[in-house]
Every structure is written in C-alpha cells, then in structure tokens.
Inverse folding.
C-alpha cells in the first residue's frame, strides 16, 4: 500500500511541477500530422518542457487526451507543468497550423494544399489571388505584365513552411506573407540579374523548377534554355505545356496546340511563370552555366539528366534512355 501511495505521489508531483516556474520564455513546439503520442512526449522531454515522457504518456492516455492532441505549432514554456502542456496540445484555439508549400507549386496546387489542411474551401485561395489589388505595396510586381494572366501572382508566392492561425485564416493574409518572404529571400538574388527583366527571370526560374530538380543540373539547364531563347530557338520545355492542362500527360494534340504556353511551336517565353520556384531555381536563372549543349532529357528510372550538343545526339539519347 505504501509503495502504491509513494508512486502515485511521485506521479502527481512530476506532472504538477513545471521544469522552471520562473522561466516563461516562449518555446515553439511543432507536432507533425499523424505523429504518435510517444513521439510527442519524447520531443517534449528533449526540449526540457516535461521531466518524464513516460508519465506524460500515462497521464494523457488515462485522461483520454492521446486521441485529441492536435498537429500544428504551439507556444509553450518551462513555467508550464505537464498537465497544462497536455491541455494546450488538445486545444485547437492554441495551435498554429503548419503549412508547407513545396518548391514548384502552382497557385492551384497551393489552393489544394490549403483545402487539404481544412483552412479554406476549395478555390478560395485562387479567388483571393485573382482579386489581388495591392500592387503598389510590392514594387517588384509588374501589374501591367501580370494582371491579365490566368493567375496573376504565379511565380512570386514564395514556397516555404508557414505557420498560420487555423482559427482565423484568410487567404489574403497568407498571400501577403508569401510576397514578403519572396521580397526577403528572392530579391537579393534577383537584384544581380544581368540584361534580363525580373519577370523574364522568374518565368525562366519557374520553367527550370519544373524541368529539373538536381542541384548540379539546374545551372546547366538554365544555360541551355537561355541560349535557346537568345538564339531564337524554340525553348521546347514540356513543363510549359502542362501548366494549364487538366492532367499531367502530353498528347500529340497538346504538342500541336496553338497556345502561348506551347514553347515547342511558339518562340520566346510563355506569358507568365508556370510555378512558384524555390531559391535554387531562381539562382540558376540568374547565374546560368555556359556549356556546349543545346539538348537535355531526364531518364525515367533514375532522373539523371543526359545532355547532347546536336539533335542527332539528342535523338540517340532518347532512343537509349526513353
């Protein structure tokens, strides 16, 4: 009996005492979607927010909290005890949703990500983009070039991980944050562009993002595409054809289509960016690498990029690798 009382007292004391009652410095704590209670408890202990992950596990399960813990970012402190932390982690009003926008996402894909995270109804983000009218606040945006595009801000909504208030979410607020992030992270690189407009550079970066992802190949492919453009060749990028398509496959009829996004039969760049590129693709567009190549393909099995100087060499590569 005495032993049971002793362990219960230890259990209650451990859960009721904060790590440091005087330390109320805010600590950001992230719970990933689908993360187990054991993992959450272990991470809390590693961040010195609780003293004993096992007892936290027991408390959560005994009180039915294990199935209520929310994913997202929470603001915790060492002055909170384990019980207070557990209550915070199940309260939807105390969390920030974690939204990750992958590099190369289009505005339609961002809309789907937000819909999947239950932050919006489908097409609300697209509608907010189309309603955007804060052009004067962002001097890097060219209203004249962008306002008549299918999705005016495509290319400038910086892909990153964002923390948003799930209970008070507005697409307009996220658009502002993404544009601010673009200005902070991309503009210092884009200010170094040579003999290219900002819009052309972002269009090229958006194509590069969709055409190739391996770091070493990005500047080489960039050099090839800029060279084709400068020498009045067709850019010939399949990714531009797919931009406004309903599926991800290119048919014979797609190749013949008279579309401004068909860079196989239209000279020059498409009218606007085809994705929201990340830093590596933006750097690649600003700092292309000279090479003797005019052609490239990506192998279907390994994703390796194979280059050729001539059309004949390219056809051999297609026969071998595709």
């Amino acid at each position: 009996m005495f032993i049971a009382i002793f362990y219960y007292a230890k259990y209650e004391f451990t859960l009721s005492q904060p790590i440091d009652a005087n330390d109320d410095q805010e600590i950001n704590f992230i719970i990933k979607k689908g993360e187990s209670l054991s993992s959450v408890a272990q991470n809390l202990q590693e961040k010195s927010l609780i003293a004993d992950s096992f007892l936290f596990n027991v408390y959560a399960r005994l009180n039915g909290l294990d199935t209520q813990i929310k994913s997202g970012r929470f603001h915790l402190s060492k002055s909170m005890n384990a019980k207070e932390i557990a209550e915070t982690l199940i309260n939807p009003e105390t969390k920030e949703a974690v939204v990750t926008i992958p590099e190369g996402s289009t505005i339609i894909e961002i809309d789907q990500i937000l819909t999947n995270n239950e932050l919006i109804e489908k097409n609300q983000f697209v509608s907010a983009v189309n309603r955007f009218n804060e052009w004067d606040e962002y001097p890097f945006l060219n209203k004249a070039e962008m306002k008549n595009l299918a999705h005016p801000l495509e290319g400038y909504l910086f892909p990153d991980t964002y923390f948003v208030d799930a209970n008070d979410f507005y697409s307009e607020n996220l658009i502002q944050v993404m544009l601010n992030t673009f200005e902070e992270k991309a503009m210092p690189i884009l200010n170094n562009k040579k003999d290219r407009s900002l819009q052309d550079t972002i269009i090229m970066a958006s194509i590069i993002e969709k055409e190739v992802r391996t770091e070493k190949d990005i500047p080489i492919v960039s050099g090839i595409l800029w060279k084709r453009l400068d020498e009045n060749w067709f850019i010939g990028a399949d990714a531009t054809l797919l931009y406004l398509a309903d599926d991800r496959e290119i048919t014979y009829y797609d190749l013949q289509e008279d579309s401004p996004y068909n860079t196989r039969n239209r000279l020059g760049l498409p009218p606007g960016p085809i994705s929201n590129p990340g830093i590596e693709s933006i750097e690649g567009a600003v700092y292309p690498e000279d090479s003797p190549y005019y052609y490239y393909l990506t192998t279907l099995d390994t994703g390796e990029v194979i280059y050729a100087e001539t059309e004949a060499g390219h056809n051999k590569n297609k026969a071998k690798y595709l």
